[in-house]
Amino acid sequence: MSRFLVKRHQSLVPYTPGEQPQDKTYIKLNTNELPFPPSPIAQRLARLEASSLNLYSDPDQKILRETAAQVFAIDKDEIVFTNGSDEALNYAVMAYCDETTGLVFPDVTYSFYEVIADLNKVPCKTIPVKDDLSVDVGDYKELHRTIFLANPNAPSGLALKNEEIEVILKTNPDNIVVIDEAYGDFNDETCIPLIKKYDNLMIIRTFSKSYGMAGGRLGYVIADKKLIADINRLRNSGNPYCVDRMAMMAGVGALLDRSYLRSCIDKIKAIRQHSADRLRQLGFEVTDSAANFLFAKHPSYPGKDLYLDLKENGILVRHFDRPRLNDFIRISIGSMEQMQVFFDTLQQLLEVHHD
C-alpha cells in the first residue's frame, strides 16, 4: 500500500474472488456461473442498445423497474437495481448499520459480508452454524442488530423455509433483516411475497446466477417502498448511473423471457440432483443444496488436495482453507458435458488416491 492510504483502511482485508487463471483452458466449476448463455432476447436487446452508449443510462431505471414489477407482482417503487448485488449489500450496510447498530451473520456464509462491515467500520458479530452447517433460527431472535442471511446459504447451499425467516422478522421488528437470495431462483420458494407483510425485510438478488449475466453486473433490491427510498438516497449520492444501458436492456429481455429462465433452472436442478447422487455413490458427504452448486467432502481425500489435483487436470472448483470447511470442495453445477468430464476425472483421481 502507499504511504497516502488513510489509516482507517490500512488494515482492510479485501474479498477474494474465485480464481480466474489464464494459463490454460479450464472447466470452471468454481464461481457459480450459469453454464448457459443469457436469454436470446436479452442478448438482442443489449446489442440494439449498444448504439446508444454515447448517452447516459436512465438513473430512474424506469423500463427495467416497470418490467420487474410486473414479473414479480410488486409495485415499481418496491424495487431498485444496482451494479451487481454486492453494491446493494454495501448500500444496506451503509443505510442500516453504524457504530451502535452492528451487523450479524452466520460464521459460515458469503465472506463479502465481513469485508463490507470492515470497509464501513461497522461492528459485526458472527453466529456459529450448527454441526451440519445449517442456521439455527433460534440464534437470531431479538438481536437488535442488522441481520444478513444468505438463503440458500453459501457455501453450504442449505436453505431456510419462509416460515423460519418469518420467525426472525417477527422477533427483530425494529431492525432490518436482509435476505440475500443470490441463489434464490434455484430454491423452491422466495421471500418476495413477504415484503407486503414485513416492513423490516429487504431481499437482495442478482442476475449473475440463474439469468446467466454474471458479466453484466446487475443486482436488485426488493423491499418496502420506504426502504427502497433509503437505498435510492445512497445510490443517487454515489452512483446514480449504476446500471449501464446495455445491462439495463439485457435485464429487461431476461425478465421477459420466462420460458428460457425456467428451462435453465430446470436443467441446473436436474444436473444438481444427478451430480449429488453420483458424489454420494463415490463415497462423498454432500449437503442438501438448494443452490446451483454442491458442497462435498470425501472421508479420505483432503479437500485441498482434491482441489489441487482437479486443477492440475484442468478443472476448477472452490476450496475454503479455513476450519470446519477445509475438508470440503464447492462444485458449481456446469452443463451435463462439463459434469461428465468432472466425474471422469474425479473417478480417476479417486482410483489413484486409493492405490
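[next item in queue]
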Amino acid sequence: MPFVALDVALTLIHSLRAPVNRIRRHHAKHANQIVDAASSIAANLAEGNRRTGKDRLHLFRIAAGSADETRVHLLVAKGWGWVSEQEVTQALSLLDRELRLLHGLTR
C-alpha cells in the first residue's frame, strides 16, 4: 500500500540534489544540514509507518520538525544568495505538501 507522505519525502530528496550541490560550494556545513534534515523526514516516516500508538505519532512529529528545519535551511540559503528562488521553488512546494500531510498524520 503506498504511503504518500514517504513518497513526497523521497521526491523532495531528489529535488534537493541540485540546490544542495550549489549550496555546498558556498557553505558545506549548511548543505550537510539540509541533507541530514531531509533524510530525517524520510527515515522517521518509514519508521513511524511501522509503529503504533504514541511511538508512531512521535516519529511523525519528528518528521514534521525535520521538514520545517529543511524549509528554513533553504530559505536561509536563498537569503544568503547561495541559491535563487527558482532553484528551490519545487523543494519548497514539496515541503509545504509534506507539512500538510504530516499535519493530518499528527492530529
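[queue empty]
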